[in-house]
Design a protein that fits this description.
- The protein is an alpha/beta fold.
- It has ten helices and ten strands.
- The strands form two sheets. Strands 6-7-8-3-9-10 form a six-stranded mixed β-sheet, with helices on both faces. A four-stranded antiparallel β-sheet has the order 2-1-4-5, with helices on one face.
- Strand 9 and strand 10 form a beta hairpin.
- Helix 3 packs parallel to helix 6 (about 135-150).
- The termini are far apart.
Length: about 230
């Protein structure tokens, strides 16, 4: 479904991604692990068209995304839930969800909003509330719900558990699995490596712009290097 080949991305003269290659198959949950500054967010921003690579290719369903503007990436079936949520603080919950459907002109928007409310009942309760007054967990639900309103086939999730209480983290990850079961492929960047590996089928480890490790999620969870670096084990 998604094929990344020899991808090179720079910030000025800083070489952020140094020829990484990976794949995400249809229906999978794939996680991208790495410490701060490894290039995880840069990878997602490049996939969603917010950054332009200097080399390599990104292909989605057989077609290149290089040079495709972000709104057209959404139209092709990819949505991005950014780190820090980036909701529209002054808009209501409903207005935020409507913004997620801005590329659509069909008659099913109300039906899809109802579907989001089924996934996140708390948002139904808060539907008229100004988004900036929601709790952190509710804002994360809203960010994911907004992305779903574009009817993606591939969902890019950047640090969905950041700043959330453990009980909310579990709830968010259960929801991610439920969304995947409904047919949405997911590429997950997550600081909570143990939780990410528990729901993913495969994973890649990103270190200073390179991908030195990859494998089935269980294999990575059992890898001594991964356990020491990302799972907090000596």
């Amino acid at each position: 479904m998604l094929e990344v080949s020899d991808l090179h991305v720079y910030y000025g003269e800083i070489h952020a991604l140094k020829g990484i290659s990976f794949q995400v198959g249809q229906g999978e949950i794939v996680t991208l692990l790495g410490n701060n500054g490894a290039g995880k967010t840069t990878t997602l921003r490049t996939l969603s068209g917010l950054l332009a690579p200097r080399g390599g290719d990104v292909r989605f369903e057989g077609k290149s995304l290089v040079g495709v503007p972000p709104h057209d990436v959404v139209l092709r079936g990819i949505t991005h839930v950014p780190e820090g949520r980036r909701i529209f603080n002054r808009l209501s919950v409903v207005e935020n969800l409507e913004m997620g459907a801005y590329t659509r002109g069909d008659s099913a928007i109300a039906q899809d909003m109802e579907h989001v409310f089924t996934i996140f009942p708390r948002l139904r309760e808060r539907r008229k509330q100004v988004a900036g007054t929601l709790s952190g967990g509710e804002q994360q639900m809203l960010a994911i719900g907004r992305a779903l309103m574009a009817k993606p086939r591939l969902l890019l999730l950047d640090e969905p558990s950041m700043g959330l209480a453990p009980v909310l983290v579990e709830q968010i990850f259960e929801t991610v699995q439920a969304i995947n079961r409904q047919g949405v492929t997911i590429l997950l960047v997550e600081q909570n490596a143990a939780m990410a590996l528990s729901i993913a089928e495969r994973g890649y480890v990103l270190e200073t712009g390179r991908l030195p490790l990859e494998g089935r999620a269980r294999e990575l969870a059992d890898n001594p290097e991964v356990r020491r670096a990302y799972l907090g084990e000596a």
